[in-house]
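We treat protein structure as text, and this decision shapes the records that our systems exchange. We quote a single record here, exactly as it is kept in our systems:
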Amino acid sequence: MNFNEGEIIYINKPYRLSSFGALAHIRYLISQKLGVKRVKTGHAGTLDPLATGVLILCTGRATKQIESLQRHTKEYIATLQLGATTASYDMEHPVNAVFPTNHITRELIEETLKQFVGIIEQVPPSYSACKINGDRAYDLRRKGKKVELKPKTLQIDEIELTAFDRMSMQMSIRVVCGKGTYIRALARDIGRVLGSGAYLTSLCRTRVGDVRLTQCIDYDRFQEWLDRQNIEQ
């Protein structure tokens, strides 16, 4: 294994850790192992801090593959809370509005989900890394400034309702989609069409391309994995 020449590593990112934070820690461990100040690294496809799952890290010359890796199809398992919304469309912010849910049925949800399969337009979350005149959207929001993002065209291949609890008004979906899809924004839009509002309570990226979560290195055990590798300097 040669991290300077280039390696692609698949990590299971834990909850409440940013993708950059995960990258920085893994880079530090590899650099320490190699005895260098800083090995070249990058990640392909950001995961929100509150999301878990497959995160692709590239080292050395493999960082040139990041753009192509980002184009791979991704699969997610998401849980949505119906009946309320938050500013960030997930649990990072408190509930800011509540809505009636007595009209919600499994049949209505399944019919609604069909509307989101195919090529769709999606407005990214204002709490996101999207740039507006060089500034990150989330930085502008945190400064109290108004953020208006343009819709993006993207592809959703599959949406499957995997669970629905009418008592708690929680639903789980499996989503297979292309580059640039915000599952938080998808939750927002599903809630709007249902007339109930919705926000994410959990999100796990279970696949990127052909790489599944079961093939990933657990973030907390990366040092153990690293110690077992035959590393070329």
